[in-house]
Design a protein that fits this description.
10 helices, 6-stranded mixed β-sheet, 2 domains, globular, alpha/beta, Dihydrodipicolinate Reductase, domain 2, single chain, Rossmann fold
Length: 329
């Protein structure tokens, strides 16, 4: 099993590399791929140094799976070229998510839709992944009518430059700005670019991707995405209205019994999800589970996850593991 990581020097790529080792992913050869300016540099994996190669060099070596985290433009240009030679691409950008011919996959929810013919598989947006992980078991039992979600997203979701901006501001140093405003001691209601409807792309991803993953275009979703000065971990306040009424104890049990979810919901001792506890973990954490008394059949949740792991790298590796286990590559 020959695996390529395209974008190996980026934040998500480096976490993918770490996870392949942590999870003992079955591979015979690892290709580390990055932009031309990084070619020839070396990264360590399992105690050995691996030289970074270019995308054309990786294509020549015909990997079985290519894990992409190098931006949408790179994916649009190169993912089809890998697919043409028989490589299965799992792409972490937004390039293919809403393409009707491509599957948008969260393994715990819809990996069973994958076949050998799926040569480009889309990894959802980080905020979407943690939300649908929490909502999928509830949708199956109670059927969702409407979701109102506000996100509190860490700077690592923007990339290395944003993390450096926050660190510089904490230290009082001047440096390159990833955002139009300071992020330290601030909250910026602006994640990704604004669309014509006044919503950001990040907010609209939550709308469109949720409907696609849950395979239900009738679900109404409205979102507000906010960048906050945390280095890692996204948090979400989710209000969900169901067609059918629910019992809170049953909701908690459904969530607790769902693979990949940890319920942290004991207010007597102040137990609830926070980014500092989700850091470095693969689960999605759910707490503050309570009925919305303002309207029927409605529930409030607080959902937190490490956006670089389950929100990106872990989900990608889990898709690859599913493909290998089920002999789809």
């Amino acid at each position: 099993m020959k695996i390529a990581i395209v974008g190996a020097t980026g934040l998500v790529g480096s976490v993918m590399l770490k996870l392949i080792e942590e999870r003992n992913f079955p591979l015979s050869e690892l290709l580390l791929v990055a932009s031309e300016r990084s070619v020839g540099k070396k990264l360590r994996f399992k105690g050995k140094e691996h030289k970074i190669i270019s995308i054309p060099q990786a294509i020549e070596q015909k990997p079985d799976i290519a894990l992409f985290s190098a931006g949408g433009n790179t994916s649009l240009k190169w993912a089809p070229k890998f697919a043409e030679i028989g490589t299965t691409v799992i792409d972490n950008s937004s390039a293919w998510r809403m393409d009707l011919s491509k599957k948008l996959v969260v393994p715990e929810i819809n990996a069973n839709q994958l076949t050998k013919e799926d040569k480009i598989i889309a990894n959802p947006n980080c905020s979407t992944i943690q939300m649908v992980m929490a909502l999928a078991p509830l949708h199956k039992k109670y059927k969702i009518k409407r979701i109102v979600v506000s996100t509190y997203q860490s700077v690592s979701g923007t990339g290395v430059k944003a993390v450096e901006q926050l660190e510089n501001e904490i230290l009082g140093k001047k440096g390159e700005m990833a955002y139009p405003y300071p992020i330290h001691k601030n909250a910026i209601p602006h994640c990704d670019i604004f669309e014509e409807n006044g919503y950001t792309k990040e907010e609209m991803k939550l709308v469109r991707e949720t409907q696609k993953i849950l395979d239900d275009r009738t679900i109404a979703v409205t979102a507000t995405a906010v960048r906050i000065p945390t280095a890692g971990g996204h948090s979400e306040a989710i209000n969900v209205e169901f067609e059918n009424d629910f019992d809170l104890n049953t909701v908690r049990k459904l969530l607790s019994d769902t693979e990949g979810i940890t319920v942290q919901d004991n207010l007597d001792v102040n137990i609830y999800p926070m980014p500092m506890y989700a850091n470095g973990k693969d689960d999605v954490f759910v707490g503050r589970i309570r009925r919305d008394g303002s309207q029927p059949n409605s529930l409030n949740l607080w959902v937190v996850s490490d956006n670089l792991r389950k929100g990106a790298a872990t989900n990608t590796i889990q898709i690859a593991e599913y493909l290998v286990k089920n002999r789809l590559v």
